[in-house]
Specification:
The chain is α/β, with parallel strands linked by helices. 30% of the residues lie in helices and 18% in strands. Strands 1, 2, 3, 4, 5, 6, 17 and 18 form an eight-stranded mixed sheet that branches. Strands 7-16-8-9-12 form a five-stranded parallel sheet, covered by helices on one side. A three-stranded antiparallel sheet has the order 13-14-15, with no helix packed on it. Helix 1 runs parallel beside helix 13. The protein starts with a strand and ends with a strand. Bound molecules: 3-acetylpyridine adenine dinucleotide. 3-acetylpyridine adenine dinucleotide binds next to helix 5.
Amino acid sequence: MNGQVEEYSVVVVGAGMGGIYALHRFAELGHSVHGFEGAPGVGGVWYHNAYPGARVDLESDSYSYMFDEELYTGWDWSERYAAQPEILRYLNYVADRLDVRRNLSLSTRVTSAQWNPEENRYLIKTDTGRTVRARYLVMATGNLSRPKDPDFKGLGDFEGEWYQTSHWPQTPVDYAGKRVAVIGTGSSGVQAATEIAKTAGHLYVMQRTPHYVVPAHNRPADPVKKERLSRKVLEFRDESYATPVGYVLPPPVGRGVDYSPEQRLQILETRWAFGGQCLLSTFTDQGTNIEINDVVSQFVRSKVAQQVDDPQTVAKLMPTSYPLGTRRLVIDTGYYPIFNQDNVSLVDMRDNPIERITATGIKTREAEYEVDVIVFALGFEAFTGALDQANVRNEHGQQPSDRWAYKPQTYLGLMSNAFPNLFTLTGIQSPSVLANFFTLNNYHVDLVDKIIGYAEEARAERVEPTLDAEKKWGDHCNEIAEPMLRRAVDNYMVHVNRYDGSRFFLPYAGGFDRYVADVDEYLGEKYEGFEFTS
Ligand code: N01
């Protein structure tokens, strides 16, 4: 097809959770739709993040598509928290069952997407030489998909092997018996270190900032629960939409200030025993009241001392410089106890930063660590990385990230002024990384469908939010985030304007349930806030 320009109504970029559902949904609705995916397989982040120990941090029963009963019942998860290979198998099962591959080009990366205002179309080019025209462009490229590449001095000199968790080889990596360093201790680094510690000759866990880590309590999946849920999966989805995070967890117990210290402790122990993310929403005021947050933070810190023998290591592992929940809570399956093993050392990089990589290892300010393998778990160019990579441009030559450089601006976290017909699934100012991506993608694709449907009914060729609507939505998002402790702590969810230092919390912070209600209210019956033009 090289040399020809193909025409589609909708082009979808990315074939992860959002892309698979979008390809299915738009085909089902009768659109001519085509998808492009850079990897040779479907799965998105679950294709690339094939590192040892990779596992979902919310329960598999909820971490599933819930729009179709047969699809839901046709799959049985083996564990309460599924591991990456099983999630990838699941996404392949869905892609096969929904027959999305007929409209999908794998191993094909979008290199540019230019809006042409005369034609009201995007002209999309790929690294395989394809040129495609599309009326609507749906970016299902994810928020945490473009890795933060290691830029340590001397990396080119390293004579051992090095890997990134976010782009792990699809073939097995042999680290058994070897000296390994894992750099970075977010969700990826913690999971990788826990697994690598089982067989490495020696493992150096290189930590700059300790995270709060709470147990998943993984176990085989509960068949009774699956049976119960699968009989009413659409209801289960609606129930998930009505929760703050897009999946059903034990609800908060109310305000922490209304309980005695003994009662709070007892409640926290119960949630700790339940496992997973529920500790994050124990008390309704722990995200805004620093004293209540201190109670929860201190509770988790006390658990470090219960699991790790060496007091110096305990002190280094305890997060003290920020409140719990202001950075992503890490859910583990046996992380802290690895530090009681003789083959594991914690290297605290706060006062001892990496100076360079050498031919044989890692040189920090105070010491040198000889290693055979380095694993970089440095995180992602969050939110805008993958969008920038696809090089989406409006008629003025701007990329979305150019427009957001001063402050993030979207309408409903889905569209931006000056970028007609462009949809960014799970984008900034939507619940994005705070929500279950299966439910949010389901919700967003269905919303895109409604907006396109409305445009077609109005015989419009172009839909775009107004500046006013965008401003109103942005102000609303900022107001919600204003009292939250998490706004004040630097991490990938906070945008700091480099010109005046103003801070913006990037996800919509009011919860999934409130987001859904807000979207309904903002749109009204007539899709207010959008301009539909022919
Ligand atoms: O990345 P991160 P991640 N020198 O950004 C350190 C999702 N996820 O891939 O904290 C030294 O959290 C950095 O240090 P610091 C989940 O949403 C989910 O682990 O900045 N260190 C930090 O320790 C998660 O939040 C799962 O001081 C450097 C680490 O690298 C998100 O993805 C599994 C450094 C990066 O942590 C990202 O998690 C995995 C440097 N130059 C990921 N640069 C599930 O469980 C960075 N660091 C589903």
